[in-house]
Design brief:
about 500 residues, mainly beta, 21-stranded parallel β-sheet, 4-stranded parallel β-sheet, 5 helices, 29 strands, globular
Length: about 500
């Protein structure tokens, strides 16, 4: 710590007397030299303000800085990785004294991967673009996820995500709809050509953390998955727009993975893969890690995904998935509305799934479950590890221009049970499949469903229209409230 006596010795003031006014005047220039210019720790109320705004967040911060205070240059060509990391490293010292917030002002801020800190907010101005470097050397390699045993694209490690954090508490990534551009085209081409030695990076990944907020951002052109909270709890993803070409590989929107107490709401996603993919590890690695995804709420989602699902459960679900509640979902031009993906060797379970008030338009399948999604991490999976799929509830849905109502394919010696579908009206396309319900190795009931379901889902009659349940009590994450926070940058 910089003490008064230390400063006096630098100026040659050695008398033992108490500080006098003249001492203070002499010391003032030196004091200012030691106060980081990046932090507005003690602001004069009369100092002119160049930037001021309010925003909603779970927690507000005591200290503020701009990326430009740490040498950031928003010209789209200058690499800002050191500026981001220097700013965050410096601001981490305030985690126990009110936390800090880093403002990314208007501009195009080229950067490689950087790491976040606890009790920290990264805020993007509406005209700010964080631009991902296309140079692989700007992306450090990290170990594969323990519940996967390998990378998703290749054996071995993976590239760190653009915005990365691990073992954090209370971290917020938000903005006034600022943009994070992954510039993923170069990665997609390498993937298609088989030129990748390691798994592609994600845009945002938060690991082993708690109390996470990701909100009010536009994410475009991710190299792979967009938002990936993993081994974490108490997560809010809100007001996110995700845009990727519909033919881009594995550009999943939001993938809660072995997470507890999560809510995803008010998001718009156009994707080359599943819009929301709920996961919990892959085959024997996920079984051994044993960390489920549970207590997940998905609300007011609008999705376009012509080759994938709006909500997918799996296929990596070996740690288990339970208590998922999705409501008020709009699906447009997508392959399927809700899809459960699993296989022999996965183990784990998908249970207590509740979906209501879903509107679908131009779909291949409204509902799809498969026990034959056969990709495996390696050949060491246990063929006796059979997944448990039970208590799946769909109700109060309408769909139009649908090619096939449902494709429900369980596993012969592990049927999917407790399926309940009620109050669902599906209008078919001009060229529908001849068979509208393909059901094998499943069991359940239905009520008020058009077209009429298969015999394995017998109709219970109109008086049972509400037979499929949806929990009315809230989840713990619903108790998390937002407050109005401010940022003020003084001249």
């Amino acid at each position: 710590m910089l003490t008064y006596q230390h400063l006096k010795s630098k100026l040659g003031i050695c008398s033992p007397r108490k500080p006098q006014v003249m001492d203070t005047l002499l010391l003032l220039p030196l004091v200012l030299m030691f106060v980081p210019p990046s932090l507005n720790m003690v602001e004069s109320r009369k100092a002119p303000i160049s930037d001021y705004f309010e925003y909603s967040a779970v927690n507000c911060r005591a200290y503020s800085a701009s990326l430009t205070d740490f040498g950031g240059v928003g010209d789209g060509t200058t690499l800002n990785t050191k500026a981001f990391q220097s700013a965050i490293d410096h601001m981490s010292q305030f985690s126990s004294t009110g936390g800090s917030q880093l403002f990314v002002p208007p501009g195009r801020w080229l950067t490689g991967s950087f790491n976040l800190t606890s009790h920290f907010t990264l805020f993007l101005h509406q005209d700010a673009v964080i631009l991902a470097s296309q140079d692989e050397s700007d992306w450090p390699l990290i170990d594969p996820l323990p519940s996967y045993g390998r990378g998703r694209d290749a054996q071995g490690g993976r590239y760190s995500s653009l915005i990365f954090g691990t073992n954090l508490t209370d971290v917020i990534i938000t903005g006034d709809n600022g943009t994070i551009d992954g510039q993923g085209d170069v990665w997609w081409k390498k993937f298609h050509k088989g030129d990748l030695s390691y798994t592609r990076p994600y845009l945002i990944e938060i690991m082993y953390s708690e109390n996470v907020q990701i909100s009010h951002l536009t994410l475009v052109n991710s190299p792979s998955w967009n938002v990936h909270p993993v081994y974490s709890s108490n997560i809010v993803v809100q007001g996110i727009t995700i845009l990727a070409p519909v033919n881009s590989p594995n550009t999943d929107g939001i993938n809660p993975d072995s997470c507890t107490n999560t809510r995803i709401e008010d998001c718009y996603i156009v994707s080359g893969d599943d819009c929301v993919a709920v996961k919990s590890g892959w085959d024997e690695y996920g079984i051994a890690y044993g960390m489920p995804t549970k207590q997940l709420a998905i609300r007011r989602l609008t999705c376009i995904s012509p080759t994938s699902a709006v909500i997918a459960l799996g296929s990596e679900m070996s740690g288990g998935i339970e208590d998922v509640r999705a409501e008020d979902i709009v699906a447009i031009n997508s392959e399927s509305g809700v899809r459960i993906k699993t296989a022999v060797g996965r183990g784990g379970y998908v249970k207590d799934i509740y979906v209501r008030r879903m509107t679908m338009s131009t779909m291949r399948w409204a509902f799809w479950m498969t026990g034959n999604y056969g990709s495996h991490a390696d050949n060491n999976y246990d063929p006796n590890a059979l997944p448990l799929i039970q208590n799946i509830n769909y109700r109060d849905m309408v769909a139009q221009n649908v090619t096939m109502a449902a494709r429900l394919e369980g596993i012969s010696n592990a049927p999917f049970t407790g399926i309940c579908i009620s109050n669902v009206t599906i209008q078919l396309s001009k060229k529908p499949y001849k068979v509208q319900w393909n059901c094998t190795n499943v069991a359940g009931i239905s009520s008020g469903v058009t077209p009429e379901p298969c015999m394995l889902l017998p109709d219970q009659g109109p008086e049972k229209i509400g037979v499929c349940t949806f929990p009315e009590e809230g989840l713990p994450i619903d108790d998390v409230k937002f407050q109005t926070c401010t940022y003020a940058r003084h001249l």
